[in-house]
Amino acid sequence: MIKKEMIAMLLAGGQGSRLGVLTSKVAKPAVSFGGKYRIIDFPLSNCINSGVDTVGVLTQYQPLRLNTHIGIGIPWDLDRNIGGVTVLPPYEKMENTDWYTGTANAIYQNIDYIDSFNPEYVLILSGDHIYKMDYEVMLDFHKQNKAECTIAVMPVPMEEAKRFGIMITDENRKITDFEEKPANPRSNLASMGIYIFNWSTLREALIKEETLPNLDFGKHIIPYIHEKGLPMYAYEFNGYWKDVGTLNSYWEANMELIDIVPEFNLYEEYWKIYTRSETLPPQYYAPGSVIERSIVGEGSEIYGKVYNSVIGCGVTIGKDTVIKDSIVMNNTQIGDNCELVKTIVAENVTIGNNDRFGFGDSAENETDPHIYNHDLVCIGEKSVIPDGITVGKNACIFGITTPEDYENGSLPSGKTMNKAGDMR
Prior knowledge:
Elements: E1 6-11, E2 32-33, E3 37-38, H1 41-49, E4 54-58, H2 64-70, E5 84-88, H3 103-108, H4 111-115, E6 121-126, E7 129-131, H5 135-144, E8 149-155, E9 165-169, E10 175-180, E11 189-198, H6 199-209, H7 217-227, E12 232-236, E13 241-243, H8 247-256, E14 284-285, E15 290-292, E16 295-296, E17 301-302, E18 305-307, E19 310-311, E20 316-317, E21 322-324, E22 327-328, E23 333-334, E24 339-341, E25 343-345, E26 350-351, E27 356-357, E28 377-379, E29 384-385, E30 390-391, E31 396-399, E32 410-411, E33 416-419
């Protein structure tokens, strides 16, 4: 019988609604990041760099691009005869067919998959964080402490602690109590949503608690193990870790890649980030073009000027166009004489000539101020913007638009234009 010491289960089914139009057609873990990568590349690369060669990827919302990207796992050296990477969507069973309703419910529905590897330990990961972490070191900590469950934690400023699940520990990092988003936190050790369980313990907890609605690790499984008095430990992580769950944190994480000395380095030899790459020609920089402090993906053609921005693969930036503090994703075409400031442009967008984005006074977004803020402009994938348009701050455009859609050729700050219903 196959026996793996530890396998990973990667939760990648999330819609990522706080990323607005960026995730209207694609799951959050499949969103582009840092030019040529996708968000899921980071936990997958961590797995193979940590010697974890069996990964189940649990998908649900808009999984097509994610499934295509992962394929059979070749870029991460996860195309194995035994183990490797397996995409696990919800599937039809004889009875109680159900979508994954919570993080732990998704694992419960795949008990048979985990059992087939007979693992001693199961590593639970989220598919939407940017970080580098050696899970083997965490496993060593788990074994040394004879823990039944180890939770990766990160110290956060005390004033931010109320936004997280907080672990209270003794001097040996044994968890004595925990609080979900406490009003008055007793500790600043925030759960990162990364867990190692002894499989026998987790399996028992999943089966005992499976009837609970929206079965969740933080709300149900961890309290169950804690109530049984089983030893749980907090593994402290002090490296770079970013939850890119909001547009602003996603924009910030991209911008941090292009710092002079980046806090998060994509270019380290010993801890590579792998991705599925298409065979593309090298970048082309036309005479007179300017690139400063930017990442530019393969196959892109730059005729204008790019400052402090992250440009994906296969992007064309026209003559006399200026891009500042912006993210432009794969296969987007931007015309001549445009100006983009603090603008996030999704994949396969077509922008005409003489367009300006991120101008005017700031105003709160009219439809989703909790999503579109910090003066960012957001353009959803496959959108089309005609010539000569000016777009304000905290504005969002999604769909194929025509000059008639813009009063006096502009979309003021804080406005949302959604023509996605016309897209087929």
